[in-house]
Amino acid sequence: MAKPTIEAISEENLREFADFLVQHMSYQRSREEWIEGLSANWAAERPNFGYMLRDEGRVVGGIGAIYADRLIRGRTERFCNITSWCVLDDYRKFSMQLAMRLVAQEGIHLTDFSPTKVVAGALQFLKFQPLDEAVIVLPNLPIPSFGWRVETDSGRIDRDFSGDLAKKWLDHAAFPWLNQILLGRPGNWCHIIYKRRSFKGLPSASILYLSDGESFLQGLATLQLHFLLRGMVSTHVERRMLPAVPRIAKIRTGFNTKQFKSDTLTSDDIDYLYSESVALDL
């Protein structure tokens, strides 16, 4: 076997990579859906859409990349979120070379939020760090609460909010699988983004992002009642998002560990916004 070549994925060849993913990834997505998801970009400059392997002109593997410029602790930081890493069996030995092309980019923090066990092992070899994968499961009980409310009117964002909260809300408003709410009271709002999912055959709310763990816990009863009235019987939130575990809760573990690589950031700086988790509905 001749050694395959590695090339950057660009607008010109993204269609070929999307066709490859349609054939070889387990997700049921059309070519157009792959192209739309992989085209998500929140960076001022996008160097590529990832990298792919070719053997005599045929695509035999690839790894997607979604870029974002994020404001972290007052500094603009560049992120590259690895996604859709897929290499045909006969070419697996070239997978690390593919990943190293992304890792070699300077001045970028890297994340992977959907690694398989094999990929997670490869990333740790490249000095990625694991994120706490434990998930807190909360029953949505009909407990009345006072002083806190849930705001769902997206029209209020333009009128009454500005800054980071408004930017994050508006940046993610175009994804129909995301639900956004504000929990709190005037002057003290927690921005929450969640997805409706199923747990043990019953509807649930899976928290993708929350802006303030303390406020989330203080207004938890109000939030749980809000979800229950909309047919969701449980709330699922990663343990690392909260400062403490609520009293009535169970903890699930055993998930594939999400990973990140950074010389300056910690796990507290990592969330799932501006990534495959929102753009590809993972």
TrEMBL record:
SUPFAM superfamilies, per database record: Acyl-CoA N-acyltransferases (Nat)
This protein's name: N-acetyltransferase domain-containing protein
Higher taxonomy: Bacteria, Bacillati, Actinomycetota, Candidatus Geothermincolia, Candidatus Geothermincolales
